[in-house]
Amino acid sequence: MSYIVTATSGHLGHLIVESLLARGAAPESIVATARKVDKLSALAALGVRTAVLDYGNPETVTAVVEPGDVLMLVSGSEVGQRVPQHTAVIAAAQAAGVGRIVYTSAPKATTSALVLAPEHKATEEFLIASGVPFTILRNGWYTENYTGEIEKARQAGEIVASVGDGRVASASRADYADAAAAAILDDSLAGKTLELSGDHAWDFAELAATIGTLIDSSVAFRNLTPAAHAELLASFGLDEGTVGFVVGLDANIRDGLLGETSGDLARLIGRPTTPLAEGLAASV
Ligand SMILES: NC(=O)c1ccc[n+]([C@@H]2O[C@H](COP(=O)([O-])OP(=O)(O)OC[C@H]3O[C@@H](n4cnc5c(N)ncnc54)[C@H](OP(=O)(O)O)[C@@H]3O)[C@@H](O)[C@H]2O)c1
Known about the structure:
CATH topology of the largest domain: Rossmann fold
Organism: Cryobacterium glucosi
InterPro entries: NAD(P)-bd_dom, NAD(P)-bd_dom_sf, NmrA-type_oxidoreductase
Strand order of the largest sheet: 3-2-1-4-5-6-9
Domain NAD(P)-binding: 9-186
Protein name: NAD(P)-dependent oxidoreductase
Bound molecules: NADP nicotinamide-adenine-dinucleotide phosphate
Structural class: alpha/beta
Number of helices: 12
Number of strands: 11
Largest sheet: 7 strands, parallel
Order of helices and strands: EHEHEHEHEHEHEEHEEHEHHHH
């Protein structure tokens, strides 16, 4: 029986493999996969097996998955393509006799108005309907999503958004990766859906203050109306779709859709989640 992890050429997948090893999984029990196996030399050097697995090519799933394996399906990064990709992977893994699939979803994916929820909802529903034992990890926001704000704050002395006093319960990618590793190794989590988020929900005034401390400079948070935010983003040359996406996400934050703190993540990893300041400092 093997633990097969997808998208290990990406940040989260790579960290999941490292967490599996840290949690005591034997290197030879792990198959780190990616579209391009030549991106996996650092993981191969840790003793894990590597293989090609491309969401757009289900035969690559059939070639890797063996009966009883646990498949960690990290959600794809090609927004708009994810439903056909994820469902093709799940169907191929099921045909190969996969023992359980662990999937990284989004907060309250089946009921949330979050702009990113529909592809995760469709994937969750397909996975559950397949009858394959599953564990769904509804990952909240990564702290690393805000790394880019540090340079902007350094240059402008402020961070700008249209989130109002909305809060974000972010955690570091390493926290979510450790949770994934814990879930992969624990068959008793079959049939469970976990809402994973950071222990503390911060607002953007706190984000600005935290970045200010990090760069040893005063940083303010300037809140805009959605219309003014859209106008500002368009003035930077962003296309209409991207502007709508960013302003829509800020509206989701304003509405509290990324601010819930269930405690599931800390419980699963057996320690508090990484604080905002520490997570940002680590990503600089
Ligand atoms: N919760 C959050 O805040 C948040 C933020 C951003 C993303 N996400 C989601 O979490 C996932 C993992 O995050 P991350 O930080 O690791 O993202 P990342 O570093 O951008 O990595 C994305 C990974 O997806 C792989 N991928 C894309 N299309 C694929 C395909 N057709 N077949 C196989 N692999 C494919 C990429 O492979 P290549 O190296 O071949 O491109 C890469 O390994 C993302 O894909 C996205 O769904 C969540």
